[in-house]
């Protein structure tokens, strides 16, 4: 209700510091929710076939929309050095899928696959050629 002078009855000013605190809180809540929406791959499992010189990378990355939230990149490393980077525009399945790569390796070589989500995070799988997985 307004008086004749145009002021609200019971009008109170909100301190700018309170507005700044509320805005900062809301922004931090929004930023913290991004990882809940997007997530890195859950699992990366490697296997190597010495006869065919083929590295198999099994990836578990659940996505309700694999055309929008997907594994964007796989970097293959051999003994710590990059052996190839492969980029993708979607993922072949909404949960678990397999990529294969030709790479020559000998017993004792360490192969790694760094699998990156297009929205958030990455996961690395590692394998020493010739050693049994436990």
The total beta strand count reads 7
Cα end-to-end separation: 75 Å
Provide the helix percentage: 10-25%
| Weakly predicted, low-confidence segments | 32-36
Q: What is the tally of helical segments?
A: 1
User: Could you tell me the strand content as a percent range?
Assistant: 35-45%
Category from helices, strands and their pairing: alpha+beta
* CATH-derived architecture of one domain: Sandwich
| CATH 4th-level superfamily of one domain | SOR catalytic domain
Biggest sheet, in brief?
Answer: 4 strands, antiparallel
The side-by-side strand order for the widest beta sheet comes to 4-3-6-7
Topology:
Blueprint: H1 16-37, E1 43-49, E2 54-60, E3 71-78, E4 81-87, E5 96-102, E6 110-117, E7 122-128
Antiparallel strand pairs: 1-2, 2-5, 3-4, 3-6, 6-7
Description of the structure:
There is one protein chain. This protein is α+β, with helices and mostly antiparallel strands and 134 residues long. The chain has a domain at 43-128: SOR catalytic domain (Immunoglobulin-like, Sandwich), CATH 2.60.40.730. It is 16% helix and 38% strand. It is built from one helix and seven strands, in the order αβββββββ. The chain has a four-stranded antiparallel beta sheet, with no helix packed on it. The chain has a three-stranded antiparallel beta sheet with strand order 1-2-5, with no helix packed on it. It is elongated and about 80 Å long. 15% of the residues are buried.
